[in-house]
Structure formats: structure tokens, C-alpha cells
Amino acid sequence: MRHHQRRPLRLVLLVGTAGLALVAGATVAAEAGSPRHGSSLRIEVLSSAPHQVSAGDALVEVTVPRQVRPADVVIRAGATNVTDAFAVTTDRTLVGLVGDLRTGRTTLRAEVRRGARSGARAASLTVTNHPASGPMFSGPQQQPFVCTTARGRFDGRKILGQPIVDNQDRQGIAVAREDANGDYPQDGRGYPTAAAETVGWSANCAAERRIGYVYRSTTDDRFHWLDDPANPPSDIATTTTKAGRTVPYVVRWERGTVNRFVYSIAALAPVGEADPERPDASLWNRRLVFSFQGGVAIGHTQGTTSDSAMLPADLLGQGYGVMWSSGTRTSTHYNLQLGGETALMLKERAIETYGVPDYTVAVGGSGGAIQQYVYAQNHPGIIDAAIPQYSYPDMVTQVIHVGDCELLEYYFDATDRTNAKWRDPEVRQAIIGLNGTKEPKNLSAGEIAQWNQLYGAMQALGYQVMDRAPGSAAPPLMECKPGWFGLTPLALNPTFTDVDDLDQLAQGTEGVQWTHFADLVNIYGTGPDGYARVPWDNVGVQYGLEAMKDGVITPAEFLDLNAKVGSWKESRDMVPEGAPFDGPTTPQNFDPWSSRNMNLSPDGTTPAPRREGDLKAIRAAYSSGMQFQGDIDIPIIDLRPYLEDELDMHNTQQSFASRQRMLNVDGDASNQVVWFADARPAQDYDPTLRAFEVVDEWMANIAKNPRRGVSGNKPARAVDTCFTTSGDVIAAGPRVWSGIIDSRAAGECTQRFPIYSSSRRVAGGPYEGGIWKCALQPVSKAARSGLYGSWRPSRAELARLEQVFPDGVCDYRKPDVGKPRHHGGWGKGRG
């Protein structure tokens, strides 16, 4: 992999919106070969890429040759002299926050004033400024859009309050007139009631920026508001920073909106900080953290706040600066082009406030882990290290095999309900790939009641269910049910939504298509039928192929399964969901598989049609950067609790799917280490803080020895590892996960923690998944090549296979259809 290039820290300024101040005791590293040893000035934007400036300001550095006095340099933004915004650092550079930039392009120019004899050449740089409300590159913004700034509460007070009025056309959310105390008649969510006086509406959901302070209490070990940072209460806790200083635990907390989403920037502050607009960064450890969060959602909302993610006590107490946004929370949306754009704008704001960090590390689970892989791929430099927890490579390629879940479950439960073989979870597992068991672990009493009620309804209506373990209160389950249940309606059905607070939209939601692909219509585009293009495809997919070859199912069962499993309808043909997703639980409305939206056999004999993915959507999935391809070269500690026994949706194969995608790029994934912690019978150990320690050592090594690259600077603890529930190391080293994506004997961790599969891998696909549409080969050729193992189809069986697969069957030896031949340059926002 390419060497990780990291610019040495040069900024020694504390930057606030009101001006600049030197940070006492800051360490400076001069860049070797810098133009200050030459004869030219140089301009650089420190807070963002020059073409990705936002909100009207940019932190700018001017490098000055040695023969030039910094005081002789004049700096202009367009025609405006902005020299007074700059201060001299200890290494003779000039750094300043250039404000009032107009939307669009502005040329910055630095030159030596007339009369100064230096011979140094002037420098210029064109910057492009975008509105704080966005977008920069994510395309037209989504409407309707639910504003939620009024919902957020912390410790009994508003985090932001109502959004700013931006129209009188009844677009968006009503904004009420407030009294002198900021109060107004409101419901339990913070929205105005009918008794409130409406002063206008907000469609873009902007809110005034607020800065305040919180402190950690010894009474309840929680954060509380601190109204007077010069006079903390008696119950204030202390914390010890990475530098070893023990100080009162006070945090400066900035909140606002950027790119239409709520953001938060928090960092330790000294007691009695004089001016919150010009923060004293002396307790900041010069490391920034992106706090990303997961979930699954389909947009049209600003999202909700999270106290624990905005104010992670373990990190803030060590001096980390923590950045968070509702736009980098996948329970708000799964548009990772929009999320990456939001992350760029948020980091820009943090750097303009605190200065350039030593490095930026990201942390977050599930969708928060996905964002780390995808953003690092699409926007090199946005993060310098990643700590993805219970990760996937990306979200969109999970739709490929998760879309198979209910198709297969419906076949087992309803279509072939007389075959007793399907009552065994292990047989189903051999076809679905994801784990299944008669005795799922750690289900709550409510979950047990929920699934027993569902199974009871199925049995009452004559459907087949799996055999229960003797004496077990919990029903047998596949990961499809507790883990992915309802994801197909959410991702594919334009009539189904679970977005909150739609009742507050003045203009309503008529015409909205509630699918993941419509949420990302700027990427996938619209088809001739007016619906968002969808890449999901199962043409040629031979479900259960490996199970048939292994003898788990017979060739006859393999043929019947593939003839009748079917596919999903086109978006335009989908209808509202049944119970338990929508409507009453009646025999006529009961449909936990979403079977009413499946293409099934019309007569039980004619093969059910398969679905052809839209090629333009497939190409967009690859080229937009929504799919992780593996092109990433930063330190990665991919960690997770082992939750397979709980049938958790965060299945363990995903860490290694990411690794295989990285190997596919250049044969090297040594910058990724994988850690598992045992969660059997209950998880006591979370290795996240250990990962932060290892990342810090790793980044320090890179700073000292940049030529060694990422892998050449790995510290001793940066190796594949598995832990017990108490945190003891079971095994560590380069071979502990052998036998998963290689042909070696199973390593110690591989033996301890079984890894399961997916329906597309069982169908013959590669480990890493991510293939939207396979290349096809004739059935006769597949049979001659030995694809079916010891089964030699008869003439009648070949004829049936050709009926089921008239276009041929998947040939995974060939490149998948629609994928560009060359990787790199993923996403419009790369750079």
C-alpha cells in the first residue's frame, strides 16, 4: 500500500471567531524543504481543501522565506486586505482566520509590501466557499426535511432550541414566537402546539450557534451544565489528561448546525476560561476524534442528538477534542456522500476553532464503523486512523445478501412448508449462510414474547416454523429475523417509512419515495418510470449451491428452491406492507416476509422470475464511493464483541470482508488489525480504550518515521488479537485468524470464534461480497466445468436448470457486471 503521508504539526495558534492567540508551550515541527528556505511565499488552507471551504471562513497559513520579514507580508482576499487577521507563529509562518468570504471563488494573494527588498515572489491561491447550510458536492438537498433542533435536551435544558425562520411559505417546520425566557407553548417533543403563535417556518433547519460549559459530577458520574466556568460547584470531578495533568473536569461545548445537521464540538477547558469564542486549548491533547454513530434510516430528517456520543467522558477526560454530527449518524440517513461532506465541514469548523491536530482518529460502531472505511476511502486525509467497532465494509452491499433473507425464509416457511428439513435451523443456515440456532442467547423477555407471538401466528395460519429446543422458552431463529427483520421494507419499499415527526411538516410528504435508493437519488438517478434506480439483482444466483455440493440438500431440493425462491418487485409495483409492519394482524394482512412485494411462481411450477438490477445504479454504487473497495492506507483497529450466539446483525465475517477487499487492491492489508472480545456468556471487556492507546503509539511512530509507512510503524500491540470476557489475551499475532480468508489451518482465534457465511457466498460468490450483478455462463458450460461438484445433472435436470436460469448462471471467475476496471477516485468529494 502507498505510504501514509502526514504533514508535521506547524500550527501553534488558538483560533476563535474573535481572533488569534498563541498557545503557551505548543510544540512546533518545521517541515523539511519548506519554501521558507527558498524565494517564494506560499499559501495553504489548513482547515480544508481549498475547493471545500464552507461557512465563509478559512484558516490560512502563509509560509515566509527566510530573507523576508513576516511584518513585510501583505495578504489579500480578493480586493480586501486581510493582513490584520494573521499572527506570526514561532516558526515564522503567518496564520489567520480569513472571514467574510463570499459564496463562490475568491483568490487569496500574499506578497511583500512595496519598498521591502526581498526578491521573494508573491503567491496566490483560489478558494471556493460554500454556504454553511451546504451542499458542497452532494447535489440538490432533500425536501421535505424534518427540523429537530427543538427536540434536543441535555440535563433538562435545550441543546439548541427552535430553528431559524427562513421562509413564510409554509415550508418545513413551524417556528413559534418565544417569550423573554425563550419559552413557547410546545408538545413533549419541543414542537409548537396550536396555542403557539407561528412567526414563520424553517425548511433548512439552521440554528444559532451556542457555546457553553459542562462539568463532570462526583455525585452521579455524569455531566451537568456549568453556568459560571470560573466558579465550579463542590461536586466537580477531576480528570487526568494524556499529558499527566490532573485538572477539574470542565468541558467547553459548542453546538450548532452545519450542512443542515446538528453538530457538537467538545474539549476540556481550564476553570475560568475568559472567552468561550476564543477557547484556551492548553488542556487539549492536540488530537481530534470523530464520534460516528450507527443505525439504519432513509433521510428526510435532521436526526436526533446523543449525549454519550457528543460527550464521551473517557475521551474528553484525556484531553481529546470530540466532533459529532447528526449528519454522521446513520440512524439519520445512509447517504455517505452527504455524510462525508458533513464530516469535512465539521472538521473544518473544529480546526478553525482549535487549530490543526497532531492527528484525527475516528470511532463508532456499525454504521459508525462503515463511515470510517468509506470516508477514509473517499476523502483521504479526513481521518488519520480508524477504530471501527462491529463493522461492515459498507451499508449498501449488505442489501445484496440481506435482500435474500426473506425470499429464502418465505420459501422455507410457506412455499415448501411440507419439507421437514426446513424445521432445522442448521439446514437453513447452510443455505442462508448467516447463523441460526434452536437456542438463541441473551434475548430479553420482551423479544422472546415478540418472536413467540409471531411464530404462534404463523403456526395458526398453517406456515412451517423451526423446531424448538426441548424446554427452551425462546423460539429457534435465524439471524435474518432478529438481526435484519424489516430491513427489506425499509430499504426497498417506497411506500414504507419509519421517519419520526413527519406530522410536523407543513407541506406534508406526498410523492416521497421511502427507500434507501430514493434517499440517494442524486447518486443512483431516476429511471424512466420516475422511481429511483435500484441495483439489487439475483439473476443467475444459485441459492444453496454449496449446501447441495456438501450434501445438506439434495439436487431435487436445490432445483425446487431456485425455481420458486423468486425475487423482489420493481419499486413502482410495490404495495403497502402487511402486519407486523403495518396494519392489523389478521390472516389476510399477516405478512412478516413482505411476500406481497415478491415476484413468485404464478402456479408453483413455472419458475419465479428473477430481478434484473439497473446497470446505471450498479455503476453509480461502484463509482460514487458508496461501496468500500478497499483503497485505504491508515491505521485500522477493527474490533467487535463476538455476538454470533445472539444472532446479532453485526456478523463477524464483515471484518474479514473488509480485509479481503483491501487485499484485492494491492495484496496488502497489513494496516488493518482485527480484535474480537468474547461475549460468552456475557461481555465484560471492551477493548476500545486499549485501541486508542495503540493508535496513539502507532501515530507517534509514523510521525517519527514517516518513510516506514503505516505498516512499518506498527507497535507491538497492533496485531490481530482475541480476548476473553475479562480482557485477557487468548491469542495474538499474524496467524491467529488463519483459515478464514486463506487456506491455512485455522488459527487460535479462528478456532475459538466460528465465522459464518452469507447467501451469496453459499451461492458460490467470493468472501468479500459486494457483487451486484454477476457475469453469466450457460448452464451446460457450468455443468461441464464441474460447478456442481459430484452431482452430474441428467438431461431432464439440465433442462429444468435452463428453465430456472434461462440467461445462465453466475460465473464468479469473471469480473462482475458494471464494475469499473480500475479502482481509485471514488466519490465526488475525494481530494
Automatic annotation (TrEMBL):
What is the superkingdom listed in this entry's lineage? Bacteria
Q: Does the keyword Metal-binding apply?
A: no
**Keywords carried by this UniProt record:** Signal
Q: Where is the signal peptide?
A: 1-29
Residues of the DUF6351 domain:
43-819
Per the record's keyword annotation, is Signal included, yes or no? yes
Q: Which InterPro entries match?
A: AB_hydrolase_fold, DUF6351
Q: What is this protein called?
A: DUF6351 domain-containing protein
Q: What species is this protein from? A: Aeromicrobium choanae
Its taxonomic path starts at: Bacteria, Bacillati, Actinomycetota, Actinomycetes, Propionibacteriales
